[in-house]
Every structure is written in structure tokens, then in C-alpha cells.
Specification:
globular; 1 helix; alpha+beta; about 160 residues; 6-stranded antiparallel beta sheet; Jelly Rolls; 12 strands
């Protein structure tokens, strides 16, 4: 029991520190070369999704059961979203930077989040709704994950 509580405290503390530091530096306009980790490659989303993500930070926490911490910036075009999915091995935290992000986790309520608001998905929760809440403005948000690298990153819901 103590190990579980300690692990959650460590995950939460590390995630908060990384998120606040990277967010502050990025929002302050620091050049990418001076941020904690450069955006090595922008992933290519499937055609027509209107989404882009940039990895800002990634490291393995060897002293915390080999978990991987990553911070990514997502941008979604107006009126776009992703299908229902799960992150089996990841604690997923989100922080809205600009625009309106709509999210629904498991049987929880549909949330319309604006700048400065956050969301959380526990491992294997159904991310039933993930979309830009505006038909005219893009949305930008950070996703911070603490993941078990032995489990798939994302699994589409059928």
C-alpha cells in the first residue's frame, strides 16, 4: 500500500514539475533549442484528422519502475477530433493552452475546457470524446503522460 501511494505521489510530483516548467518556458517564448527537450519530429497524423502533435519532452524514469514520462503539444483544427480510444498503460493529464477542448472520459460528463483548465485519464479509461470544441478556432493543449512502456500507447475503441 505504501509503495502504491509513494508511486502516485512521485508520478504526480514529477508530472507537475515537468508540465509547469515546460509550459512556462514554451509560453515565455523560449527557443526550442533551450527547452528541456527539443521537438525531434512532428508525428504525421492520418490524412484528414486536422491534428498535429509535437513531442516536447521524453525520458525514462529508471528509479520509478521504468516508467516513461512524455510531454506533447497537440493542435487541432476547427471542428476536428479523434475517435474513441484508450491508453492502457498511461496516466494521461491534459492542459488547455488556447481555444476550447471537449473531452469525455469513461461515463463522466462531456467537459468543455478553456485555457488553463485540465483533464485526467487513468490507465485504460475510455477517452470517448476528444475534439476541438470550436468550428472556427484551433485548439492547442499539452498532454503529459506517465506510461508503462510494455503496454500499447493507444488502442482505438471498436
Amino acid at each position: 500500500m505504501k509503495r502504491s501511494i509513494l508511486s502516485h505521489a512521485v508520478f504526480g510530483g514529477v508530472t507537475a514539475v515537468l508540465a509547469s516548467g515546460a509550459t512556462y518556458l514554451a509560453l515565455a517564448g523560449w527557443p526550442q533549442s533551450l527547452l528541456p527537450a527539443q521537438a525531434h519530429a512532428q508525428s504525421k497524423p492520418p490524412a484528414g484528422t486536422g491534428a498535429r502533435q509535437t513531442e516536447l519532452f521524453k525520458t525514462t524514469m529508471n528509479d520509478v519502475m521504468g516508467r516513461v514520462v512524455s510531454i506533447r503539444r497537440f493542435e487541432r483544427d476547427p471542428g476536428t477530433g479523434s475517435g474513441p480510444h484508450r491508453h492502457p498503460g498511461s496516466h494521461t493529464l491534459g492542459y488547455v493552452l488556447e481555444g476550447v477542448y471537449e473531452v469525455k472520459v469513461d461515463d463522466g460528463p462531456l467537459q468543455r475546457l478553456g485555457p488553463g483548465e485540465t483533464f485526467y485519464e487513468p490507465p485504460n479509461a475510455l477517452h470517448a470524446v476528444s475534439r476541438n470544441g470550436s468550428d472556427t478556432q484551433p485548439v492547442k493543449y499539452l498532454v503529459i503522460q506517465v506510461s508503462d512502456p510494455t503496454k500499447p500507447a493507444t488502442v482505438p475503441e471498436k
